[in-house]
Amino acid sequence: MLIGVLGGGQLGQMIALAGLPMGLRFRFLDPSAEACAAAAGELHVGSFTDSAAIDRFVQNLDAVTFEFENVPASAVHHAASCRPTHPSARSLEVGQDRGKEKALFASVGLDVPRYVLSRTTEHLDSAIESLGFPVVVKTVREGYDGKGQRVVRDEASKRSAIEAMGSVEVIVEDLVAFHREVSLIGVRSVTGEMAFYPLTENVHQSGMLRVSTPRADDPLQPEAERVGRAILESLGHVGVLAIEFFVERDANGKERLLGNELAPRVHNSGHWTQDASETSQFENHLRAILGWPLGRTSLTRTCVMVNMVGRVPGREDLLGVGGARAWPRIHVYGKSSRAGRKVGHVNVVGESLPAVESLVTSLRAVTLRAEAMA
Ligand code: AMP
User: pTM to 2 decimals?
Assistant: First the structure.
């Protein structure tokens, strides 16, 4: 079977790496001839808005999916008119719009930070005033990895945010003093079967994910799954979907979930599933879109994922840090070095969390040294 993937980045590459052993083959459509997924399948270089390119791309495909959410919905509509295509353009459209995400969260009973949508400079000023400092201003569309967002704490940062973002549609929301951040990776098949991975605790820096730790028995798991199930069903979503939450803690130490955003695709905070779950998120995504039975999603061993940003360290430095109780599994995407770009990740696995965390500390030093040279 030949699967088409809109987008040729690392997520596409890892979907293909999971599908090859199941007998699947892959074709990618990406505007860049440098797209790294080409290592794992056939690359068509073309624009997502070029309908002739999409017509060529879909020829002989058995199914189509996408790996990144800034693919125009029109490309997904076009593919869906010719081939089975999952997730749908509807899931994509919600994932592309922070306002629609918030409305969906509210509709399933998930609280969100207070927010105001704004389209003009004058309105942005009054939106910030109405919430009061500190707030975060984010573009409604096309932001990722901390791009397209600013924290506003005072008049000076307000003025510069208005100058930079006053002319586009933005969302202004309370800056949440969260206690921690978690994400839920869920998957729903064409058949309606659903599965959820254990909640993952995430650490971001300047808006970009750096470290993810799956938690086998997070007390918030049942509530997160309730929300996840309702969202997957409400969208009629097929494939993997990730939901990112802030966790707030009240004066008595009781935690509650606040919805931040969703991604209607495989997600960086689920990369640990490659080395510490029976079935990776990438394999389950493929099983879901093809209507095959979903695989087990439990955590099989202690794992912490560390992103490599900017530049990949020497392999001997990465692979030389392991010991008998914790060791690294490296995933390098084959992308050229560039500051702020995700170029790979390491899943540190091992016998116990202390052993894994101590290795993560030395690995972080190695990856940050390389990053400084990007
Ligand atoms: P996002 O692109 O919305 O996922 O934001 C990336 C990261 O920026 C989040 O994971 C948080 O670490 C931080 N962030 C975004 N929005 C807020 C907020 N309203 N309050 C506090 N931190 C935020």
Answer: 0.97
